[in-house]
Amino acid sequence: MTASSAAPVSVSGPSGLPSANPFERLAEMLDGLAPGAEPIVMTIGEPRHALPAFTGDILAQTVADFRRYPNIRGTDEFRAAVGDWLEARYSLGGALDRARGILPLNGSREGLSFAALGARDYLAQKQTTRAASARPAVLMPNPFYQTYAAAAHVAGAEAIYLDAGAETGFLPDLARVPEAVLARTVALFYASPANPQGAVADAQTWARVIGLARRYGFFVFADECYSEIYRDTPPPGVLEVAQGMGDGFANVVTLNSLSKRSNLAGLRCGFAAGDPDFLAAWSKFRGLAAPQVPMPLQAVAAAAYRDEAHVAENRRLYNAKFAVAEEILAPLFGSVTPQGGFFLWLDVARWGGGAAVARKLWAEAGVKVLPGEVLAVDTACGNPGADFIRIALVDDLAVVDTALRRVASVLGSVPGSDLGGS
């Protein structure tokens, strides 16, 4: 394997970390600008659909368990519910180890933050062939969820950013990574559906990723928190592909949560599942350092993973908003509907790029969007997010309709646009 002319590079600067989180950077960009209409904020991916109806009742029934310290491995009920859901969703043939292959997380973000450190230490204990003197590397897409960079920093690893633009189907292309980098890699963060682009890895892509991880001895941490927010066809999952390749779930861990699937972002409950040897070892470290998940929250989570009706309704609401987005924005952009997730990822290069358009939309229409450059870092090829804006379709249909008509009015011309507010 050889590196192409578009090979990834690590970011210079303090620890390779971005200078600030995306929302702080946007605030700096908009400083001093007044909104041109009643504000509509479409920056953050915080679901605003209804909670599952049973949430309050289960919390009330289990409230006494807030007195107890939870086990880091989670309750039997939680692991059984997650295991049953994974089996039903991905047809794993009963191969997932419910006792050693599932762990609760305080949301997927918490698990992602500790994952690279866990991989580094696990591989060091296994005395793998990677050179002890080589600085470990952590691979991640670019644009990316900023927690990946923090995870590399915590692990003392070099963050290697893989540009994921239109030329790679908006997914990172591992064929562009030099062998010397792969040889010292301890972890790869790979999101499908991707944030922000909504691209989905097919089974063949997952198989290539898993094959490389097993060949070079690193871990795939599959960020699948948008797995249930899709248009028509459920995205394939890393566990089902790994199982079909043989060798069980070696080198593979999926991380998921209830934040997007069930509109329970504030519950802070998710899971990691996959390689049982890694997860069993990781749970020992987590027992020293990681926060446990309160048992009442695990009880809500178990009920949520056993109910698909609210998930289907959630998906229907998002798809209705994408239909509106298609109607309003396709005349300007062509098709705007991604395979998964709840973001629009719009190429606004012809209007001056993401930062200029974000300022323009705020100043002229009161619509706050996220410029793509704050979700990415500069590499040798530039910033792969610079030409884009991300719009979160998390509000109700009427608000989304109003906001997108304002966007279209500023960037083009759509009948019925109203800048009078929402």
Strand content: 5-15%
Percent in helix: 25-40%
Shape: globular
Task: Specify the structural class.
Answer: alpha/beta
N- to C-terminal separation? 53 Å
Major sheet details: 7 strands, mixed
Number of helices in the DSSP assignment = 13
**N-to-C SSE series?**
HEHHEHEHEHEHEHEEHHHEHEEEH
What is the subunit arrangement here? single chain
Low-confidence residue ranges: 1-15
The number of strands is 12
Radius of gyration (Å): 21 Å
**What is the strand arrangement across the widest sheet?**
2-8-7-6-5-3-4
Key phrases:
globular, 38% helix, 422 residues, 12 strands, disordered N terminus, 13 helices, alpha/beta
Can you describe this structure in just a few lines?
With 422 residues, the protein is α/β, with parallel strands linked by helices. The protein has helices at 22-30, 55-62, 76-90, 107-125, 147-154, 179-182, 203-216, 238-245, 276-289, 295-305, 309-333, 354-365, 397-411; strands at residues 40-41, 102-105, 137-142, 158-163, 185-191, 219-223, 252-257, 270-274, 343-347, 367-368, 370-371, 388-392.
